[in-house]
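Trying the structure run again after the queue cleared.
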Amino acid sequence: MSETIEPHSTHLRFNDQTLPCPEGLTLAALLEAQGVDAQAVATAVNGTFVPRSQRDQQRLRAGDTVLSFQAIVGG
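Done. Tokens:
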């Protein structure tokens, strides 16, 4: 069963984890702190794709849901 994050919480969801969300946290910093190879994954915040080039500028807020996943290409 997944945890529910209250709007006033100081946490965010990263994949299947609940993590602290300090003020000023960026998506790039979160990926680095979690040991994620940022070049090997695609990312989305609250269901919206975030390109690699914008991760340094993407500020995270308490209550956000962040997903990292391997992009699948093929044809």
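Residues 28 and 56 are 5 Å apart (CA to CA). Worth checking whether this holds up in the mutant runs.
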